[in-house]
From TrEMBL:
Compositionally biased tracts (Low complexity): 24-56
Region described as Disordered: 1-56
Protein name (record): BTB domain-containing protein
């Protein structure tokens, strides 16, 4: 489908939201604990629409985001998707079908719909084999909406990728750069970037893999297991290795350039500079021996600056500091950051 359709849906869907957002905020405050917990995606209800003919014995909730008044381009919902834990999500059948290439995993197939007795517009209900926390993420993504306010855990966000695929949604479009789910996952990825990178690589979500790789400079490649390598696939594993090699290679090049020498003076000539040159060579040698793609700029600065004591004149000191500054700036800004 045309991704712009999702964006139009986003703006249309935002129009309805204000009163429900207030409700959600109240719910969030009531349920928040010091630790981050997922916000409930539905509000329990005693009464379900009679037209849905749901078994009365169940306790149902209604989605706070996808409720009966959830409009898409001024259209009211015409299908109710019921999660495995009995949360009702009101949605738009034609819109879902336009986003899916498999009739929403066959659930909205014309034949399947035909079997729902007495279904009329607004009364069609379909049970989805997915829990509400996960399905809430899935539906937000299809409608081009952010679900950050529900604070779903990262593993649910990552699970949503496969679930979207199952529902026939083109994940390369719906998780392209700057889409809501892409932004959400990127924001949550720093604590466990490898988990995100593996999912991104598995599903060929290149923008997500690239963004996440910026947090993988400290990954020890020798600790990548066979299973991880298999999930990454040869292409992404190679790109990650190349990133590490390029970073360490670039640092090596920076370190190869020593501080410039000044003209001999009475105070400081070749003989006086020898100790300084040796100290520089030793510091560089030590750094190269333990070179890591994630070496912090501060560590570079402190290690290299520590040889100041071997500089015999102010000009040598100035030259050292200029060189160290140049190395640190280049390392921080010009070293390759992502695959
Ligand atoms: Zn000097």
């Amino acid at each position: 489908m045309d991704p712009s359709t999702g964006l139009d849906a986003t703006s249309a869907a935002r129009g309805f939201a204000s009163s429900h957002e207030q409700q959600e905020n109240a719910t969030t405050q009531a349920t928040q604990t010091p630790q981050q917990v997922a916000t409930p995606v539905g509000i329990p209800t005693q009464e379900t629409p009679p037209s849905l003919q749901l078994p009365p014995q169940q306790q149902y909730s209604i989605s706070t985001a996808f409720h009966a008044d959830f409009l898409l381009d001024d259209s009211i919902p015409d299908v109710v998707l019921i999660s495995s834990d009995h949360v009702l999500f009101y949605a738009h059948q034609t819109f879902l079908l336009s986003a899916s290439d498999n009739h929403f995993a066959g659930l909205l197939d014309i034949d399947a719909i035909g079997t729902v007795a007495g279904s009329t517009a607004g009364s069609l209900s379909v049970v989805v084999p997915t829990g509400s926390t996960l399905f809430n993420v899935v539906l937000h993504t299809i409608y081009g909406l952010s679900c950050q306010q529900f604070q779903p855990p990262l593993d649910v966000l990552l699970q949503a990728v496969q679930t979207l695929k199952t529902f026939g949604i083109a994940v390369d479009q719906f998780l392209a750069r700057d889409t809501p789910l892409y932004d959400h996952i990127v924001a949550e990825s720093p604590p466990v970037p490898i988990e995100v990178f593996l999912v991104a690589a598995e599903h060929k979500l290149d923008a997500l893999a690239v963004a996440t790789s910026a947090h993988l400079h400290s990954l020890v490649l020798s600790q990548v297991t066979d299973e991880m390598a298999e999930r990454m696939g040869p292409t992404y594993f190679k790109r990650l290795m190349s990133l590490h090699l390029e970073r360490t290679g670039y640092l090596g090049k920076l370190l190869m350039v020593a501080p410039t020498h000044h003209e001999d003076t009475a105070e400081c000539g070749k003989a006086q500079r020898k100790e300084f040159d040796q100290a520089w060579a030793l510091a560089v040698g030590n750094l190269m021996w333990t070179v890591r793609p994630d070496i912090p700029a501060d560590e570079l600065r402190s290690t290299l600056s520590s040889i100041e004591q071997h500089a015999k004149c102010n000009e040598c000191k100035r030259s050292l500091h200029a060189r160290v500054h140049d190395i640190v700036v280049n390392w921080s800004t010009n070293a390759k950051q992502t695959i």
